Amino acid sequence: MSLFKRMKKAYQAGFGPSRFQAARQIIHCPHCGRDIFEQSRALLNTSGLTLLGLDWLNQSASILICHHCGYIQ
Ligand SMILES: [Zn+2]
Questions:
Q1: Does residue 1 surpass a pLDDT of 80?
Q2: Is the pLDDT confidence value at 41 over 60?
Q3: Which of 24, 29, 40, 45 fits a 20 to 30 Å CA distance from 4?
Q4: pTM above 0.85, yes or no
Q5: pLDDT in tens, 9-38
């Protein structure tokens, strides 16, 4: 296998859409029932820090985006 193919395979395995678990249960989309998600981060803004222009100090949360229908949880 070429280096490019190995890098592509590693990228797809590590960063692409995949299955996730919580409390040893596979997470399923409540809208369509599929189990493949894209993981991302979302900033949890507060009005006080936004007023001061310091949004970057707010905490962030992990979000899962259903690969099939786009439902976010
Ligand atoms: Zn879905």
A1: no
A2: yes
A3: 40
A4: no
A5: 655 555 789 999 999 999 999 999 999 999
Give the distance (Å) from ligand 1 centre to CA of residue 47: 31
Q: How far is the CA of 45 from the centre of ligand 1 (A)?
A: 26
Name the residues around ion ligand 1, CB cutoff 5 A.
29, 31-32, 66, 68-69, 71
CA of 20 to the centre of ligand 1 (A): 14
**Extended strands (E) in the chain:** 21-22, 25-26, 37-43, 60-66
CA 54 to each of CA 44, 48, 60, 62: distance values in angstroms, whole numbers, following the listed order: 12, 9, 14, 20
Mean pLDDT (whole number) for 51-57? 88
